[in-house]
Fold these 4 entries.
Entry 1:
Amino acid sequence: MTDLSTAGPPPGETEYQRVQRSDEFQGLRRAFRNFVFPMTALFLVWYFVYVLLANYAHDFMSIRLGGSNITVGLLFGLGQFVSTFAITMLYARWANRKFDARADALRREIEEGEL
Amino acid sequence: MSETGTDIGNPWVNIGIFAAFVLVTLVIVFRASRQNKSAADFYAGGRNFTGPQNGTAIAGDYLSAASFLGICGAIALNGYDGFLYSIGFLVAWLVALLLVAELLRNTGKFTMADVLSFRLRQRPVRMAAALATLLVVFFYLLAQMAGAGGLVALLLGVDSQAGQSLVIAVVGALMILYVLVGGMKGTTWVQIIKAVLLIAGAAIMTVWVLAKFGFNLSDLLGGAVEMAGPEGQSLLEPGKQYGADGTSKLSFLSLALALVLGTAGLPHVLMRFYTVPTAQEARRSVVWAIWLIGIFYLFTLVLGYGAGALVGPEAINNAPGGVNSAAPLLAFALGGEILLGLISAVAFATILAVVAGLTITAAASFSHDIYANVIKKGKVKPDAEVRIARWTVVVIGVVAIVGGIFAQNQNVAFLVALAFAVAASANLPTIVYSLFWKRFNTSGALWSIYGGLVSCIVLIVLSPTVSGNEKAMFPSADFDIFPLTNPGLVSIPLGFLLGIVGTLLSKEQPHPEKFAEMEVRSLTGAGAEKAVAKH
């Protein structure tokens, strides 16, 4: 990678490569990946913990709560709904508040050829 | 109450309510069709739908008869294991939300292949992606059409083979009409109306069921347990359907993997992200879809146990539609023939809306990817492309009718799970790699798509779903070498792995400038396809 501060753009570099190298874009990309990758890992792990429990820990999942017909397994299953709704809201809030403005600013710069 | 046919209820009420649905949607489709001019109109509804509209349409596209009737029935008969199924279908949407929807909207035009071929060699990748699309759509379509035949026996009191075939033909013909006339815009409105009817119908029944049990979930579960007799307690515990032995448990694991990773690779779901003007609206679509689908699956939990408690497993098993009859029988038990008629009509509307969505996806994939870009190498007028797409709609409609008639007495329920497995093994790895992995190349994409595709098909053919036992498609044959009923556990890791191996083995020169364009566009939305101006 060339030194940004002194050299001009390398010969043959496209507009998009120039944007890709910029600090703004690298920051945006890092912010996006830092949010979505851990979040994806989190819900996949939680989902498979649940599936494995339901598949291989029947006795645990079958425990009735306080004499009712509600089982631990049912609570865990409903927990999957809660976590899915929660992650959805968290992501939408993060993207609306933190991501869109930065992405939009970059998009305008690119489309108006200012960068 | 007339006891004609095999079942309860009045078929004429069912037919009347369904006819009203068809009439209303046809009027809307004809109105929507006035603006169908360009390819973006026909394939993507002019990209003018709002996030909430598209989210509702996604729910309408996704909540097939299999999820409504199938999951209600599975919970009624198998209790907790049926519930497990619905969770996979829901959690899967987070993959679409976080990793796929917005980036796809920003980089593609009409099809999944648009994104995959962005920085790879166009023709081979488009061909592979289009074949995967057509195959997934075909499996899904066949399952829906065959299901339509079975539903008829139950809901309209049509028992005869000829009568069921006729209904399949009517469903197919209506579907062709909707898609030909309305394009994506018409299809979307059909899906929106259907989603509203389905979710509203399920909501009414849910409140009704809960009211019968004093809004106490534990009492409802207790009712289902009591109705099921001495073995009833097992309804509350996992394992009734999948827990028999180590192999069936692995089969379930395999299914769970295919469900959670398949959704974000289903072509008819992906195509819906192009019907909105921006990535932000694509995000809102998925948020709406997740809420609607999640709430709907919570309803099915109540409805499933409600059917178990108020109808009982014996009556469900003995009804003509078997497991699929749980929800309609519950509707009859609650609200008599009017509610049964409404729910039956909604079930038909569901099939119609889902097959319309599948058909337009397949038509776009054939005409945009195979005809325009592979055969004509991109040198084709948009008019000609849309004309080919319309012809494809007719061909697919006819294939679906014929396939549905042949499949109606086969056990084809596994086809939906197979479609998810192919989507997760062949489509998702290539989508994720091409969006996030710089080094990924054409060879990796081809290895992954064809490897995922072929391994899925081979494994399902060699599985107990197809041969080796009395429930199989070919009960008398015996070539079930692969023990699991779903191929996902093997084929999905294989699809991801082949993408890496194929990439590393290839000597293809990387295209950093194309990856730069794709990455910048996918995150910022620069240069994304714009909505068609409203006329």
Entry 2:
Amino acid sequence: MRPLFERARENLRNRRVLAVMAGKGGVGKSVIAAFLAIVKKAPLIDLDLFGMAAPKLFGVAGRLHEVGKEGIEPIEVGGVKIFSVGGIVGDRYVVLPGASQGGVVEALLAFAKLGNAREVVIDMPPGMGEELLSLHRITDFAPIVVTTPSAASYKVVKHLVDYLLELGKRPVAVVMNMAYVRCNGAVIYPFGRGNEVKKLADTHRIPLIEVPIDPQLEEYIGQIYRYRGPVYEVVQRFSLESNYAAF
Amino acid sequence: MHEWSLALSIVQSLDKWAFQQGVEVRRVAVSVPSVSQLDVEILKEAFDMLKQDSRLAKATLEVKVRTPRYKCRSCGHEFGQEEVDAQIKALMQSYGEEYPLHLIPELAPTFIRCPKCGSHDIEAELSIKIEEVETI
């Protein structure tokens, strides 16, 4: 018997687990996950064991978690409680063989002190590796799939959606990030209109959320909780609208 | 301090299992990897405190500290704890009380390198397991 696996399952029981994921890296899922956690005032668990973007976005990279009798204390910033392997190893790289990754995921989910949070946001790593399999073993998560309009991203994300549907987990939303940018009153689509992404969402009756590019966002890396621009506004709007209650 | 949260994990998971089986637990044997540097006495003390009012109330905890064998997946070198003791010691000095393998021993390949080729691509059994359970 693996006590940490059992504890991880117990720790997430009766909580809604929103897992923000993408088959591909660089599509902005950590940013979406961060805003979702801010809007929902939910704990943010960073399962991107190698990227560890959450501490960087919130400006707490290198800060270590305190550990108490009941588990790992969150690093709290901007009203968000963050849990990350970055808070255990500090400001250094993580390299792990596949067999070790599941144990790390289980330990983080077992010991994270989530308090009375009814919802938890998880920032997943790119790809469909051990972290995704581990999360599936541990909890009945609700996937939120992030992509860009680019055909390169779509083809990867389609495989992820196919896999999730096979598991019986219809994504609660497809987020088409970097969908457009407003420039001098015009709307520009630098990565195309994302018609294939729209078709994918439509075919499976998954709500589609189009998120704009905001060049100002870069200035908030390290203090993302202060940003209230159009990217945040879209995530907030769709989180609150009744049509997207699942999101 | 982490010994308490680990003890809680052991008690909670076994209490649930014992309830499902309709039994009470008399003895538990847990194995932990030596790299975790867990304090066995604190772990037992925490277990004895936390087991009250559970199906483990009469249980004793036995802790086996396992010395891992490592294998480098890059060069094939197999080695024991003694060949990485210096690396572990340096890691403990570097992190002090926040020694990361205390909390998550599976992170060992991030910090330990093969003594022969220097690769981090090493494998070992580093999980914490309940090995044996005796019931009443």
Entry 3:
Amino acid sequence: MCGIVGLYLKKKSLHSKLGFYLSGMLDNMSSRGPDSAGFAIYNNKESKKNYKYSLCTNNNTLSNKFEKNVKKYFKDIKIKNISDHTVVLTSASPKKFISYMQKNFNEISLVGYGKSIEIFKQVGNPKEIVKKFKLANFSGSHAIGHTRMATESAITADGSHPYSTGEDECLVHNGSLSNHNNLRRQLIKKGKTFDSLNDTEVAAGYISQKLSENKSMKKTLTECLSNLDGFYTFIAGTNKGFAVLRDEIACKPAVIAENNDYVAVASEFQAMAHLPYVNQSNIYEPKPGVVYTWGK
Amino acid sequence: MGKIEDLDFKKSTLRKINNFLQNINYKNNKRDFNIKNPGGHHALCAGLTENIFVNIKGHVGYYCGGMNQKAHITINGNAGTGLGENMMSGLIHVKGNVSQSAGATGHGGTIVIDGDASSRCGISMKGIDIIVKGSVGHMSGFMAQSGTLLICGDAGEALGDSIYETIIYLAGKPKSLGVDCIEKKMNKRDIKKIEDLLKTGKIKNLKANNFKKFGSQRKLYNFNIDNISNY
């Protein structure tokens, strides 16, 4: 099972409703994945200089201690706390910030970073997760979400999607991979690090690795077809937009609705039934083994 | 024709609507129903057993019209996986596209799809007639046993893989044929059957001679050690 959703807004005037629309999509997909949920929101508005670091603290006393210390260490810093997640906005480079975190707050997990991405994910029913992180209040250009029925690894926050393994990159996955252990070892040799034993994190790492070799998203995902064994529908996000890929056997469902205002992708039509004018959109099933991309 | 009764998801639930349609009281003289705001719900109109007319105004989810007997179901939109699965009789007409495994294991009746059907259309069909005005995806007609699959567009990879006695009529081109599926010679009965199906599907831009016939080579029926790589 598992449910995946993605929404790309073509019009700026709709950006303020991104979170509202996505929360309905995730809510509807709780039937496919009641174990945990997560979402990645892309919003370029805040600053072009600053980075956003999404942290899952899991613990309030820890987040208080973190806030005090991090404010002393980095000068220009803004902190946004939402439930057990913290988003740090700072000009500090990823290298500097990540090494600070590893030295001082190893128990806090960095779930994603970039100039535009914010990631929130946690264990629990998607209906509650959506409320807990106040998803409906978020604005942005595009977003990706996931509801999980756990198969390949434990039901924990770090076993939840989306997985981010590179700046402004993330991946959600419906399906499972069979060659992830081998691929993980190969990627570790190339310098990638992994936080969980999850198969999707390996796919995300694989995609980040290819993108860092200056391959386009289209080429990267096409190479997934020959290097990832298993079954999958992927939605892979970057700060520019997102892409969809289904494996060639295509056991895992997906449906796309596109009109002048937005592109919506989901495991089932139910997830998008609440979107405006969806019934008049061009609705189709992505073809197996074909990469679909949207973005700037 | 009796009065058309509206069943609206804004005022009711899937279970209530299905329960109502599955237990029609003919004494009330109701035969015609509109379903409003279906919202992609799954298993809508599954297990209907009476000769009623249901007009669904929107898109449906998985297994719509599954196990249908006698009912005529029209879907003004797209349908998800397993449309009319194991259908026995009656008619399902989809005005949009359908997802995979349409008409799977269907024993009888007819499915008409105005758009495209994706992979595994008519998988293991057992007597149903499926008319697709668009194209079908890969592995369509896989292990299909009886009935007819008429495709006006093209077919994906491995059309009719391991097919038994279903007959496939294809106007476009197959990307590839599956194991043991071959092109066959048309006869008068085929022409008549295609003409009947074109009439049922209200297809006017094609004629029987636009189609090619595909069926089983019957080489996989009995175990043959030389075919081991094909099993």
Entry 4:
Amino acid sequence: MIKLEAVYVLMGLLTGGIAVVNARDDSNPRRWRNTLFWGVYALLFFAGSYLGDLANGGLVLVMVATAASGLGQGTRESVSIADRLASAIRHRNRLFVPVLVVPVATFLGSVLLKDFTVAGQPLVDPKQVTQIALGLATVLGLCTGLAMLRPPASAPIVEARRLMDSVGWAAVLPQSLAALGAVFAMAGVGKVVSTLATTYLPLGSPIAAVAAYAVGMALFTMIMGNAFAAFPVMTAGIGLPLVVQQYGGDVVIVTAIGMLSGFCGTLMTPMAANFNIVPAALLDLKDRYGVIRAQVPTALILLAANIVIMSLFAFP
Amino acid sequence: MLPLMGILIVIVGFALRLNALLVVTVAGIATGMASGQSFLDVVAAFGKAFVDSRYIAIVWLALPVIGLAERSGLKERSREVISAIRAATAGRVLLVYLALRQVTSALGLVSLGGHAQMVRPLVAPMAEGAAENTHGTLPDATRDRIKAMAAGADNVGMFFGEDVFVAIGSILLIRGFLEQNGIVVEPLQLARWAIPTALVAFAVHGTRLLRLDRRIAREVSAAKATSTEPTP
């Protein structure tokens, strides 16, 4: 059975390869810091499941300290613009094929691999089908690219290094935030927040309760970086006892739109790093919060719309 | 009150634009210690949660193939393809992507999009290319604005599309939570009530994308005006 662990080995090879390319690149004045950062990350992929929690935590601290001291970036361009233009003319639309293989194969894999069994055993871990399908799809995409474009053998890892170093430490931020969420949950942050919300927010009328629930969902999502973490807390604190039970709101409409109000918060917070901070790094934006800035107007209008929709339809 | 210290650290750290990785780690350790655990216990808990969430990073496995295609001229080709479509503007390209992203997400095909898989290699270069075809060279700030709106279209399309699909995580979470509280609801009912917000989301963000074209034109002509002024 293929488990997530196999995909982690691929991740270890990728990040380990990035560490090696960095070590050999003297155009990056901080190449040893980059080597250490990606090397330790590789170790966490290869050995994270077997090392103890404390050892893993120590390794994470090494990565954080290295990132905080400042990572660098190699300056050497692998291929000139003229070469890329010439290659674009030569390959034309075939260039899209390897890139599109990834999402299409991920989708097909997540549908088809679910029920695929070999000798009575499921081929892939049923709980992790989508993640494993994504991992396999990237391998398939890479093989397609190698076969069609015939680059030098070192090209994939050299190019991956270029992209990964342009993202830098932001690449591991989503994982750190997930860890922070776990610590928050352990320390009971949610309870304190919902107590504060119910104590200080004005909840004297159905409309006020609806607004408090929707805005509370958005704000608490901004703090936690994740509407899933905010939903149980705010719904148990305001949504169910007040909007539904006290004022007679329809439970389906209230909770469905409550969750969507949380999504408005996700659009506005750096804590949702994989949606907001990572793309800013991946697209080389000068402003780390550029994606958030682009989304705030949409998010605020939608939050207001959610309050209106909930108020109009939840109270028959 | 003490557990909220971590939130304060995060807000101040992010506002001051300190290294976010450092801010998050310090906030985690402070929160854990404020709730009465030892330093080593918190480090271990942090390490465990970090390792348990490695699956989030799997998307980076797409980088070798994307880098390879970029090296072979993917962005250059994307721009050329879009230049063949005369009606294409940055805003319209992104509007089409928003529609596709939202509809496919509503059908459960969330994995067809994404920042690393689609936005960086295809959507952003096409939007930039369309703007360049109309306006020539773009100021850096305008270029960044187009790219940021491309990322935003992916997020808005996915967030407000996926909830229309019955088997998505958030719908199952709502259902599970209500069940624990003794209320049984059908996923289909929840998914149906995601539709009004989905329509508003498309209308609002779509309008903003179309207005982007006017803003690009304004910024480009402002940049031209300053660059052609005679220098003393």
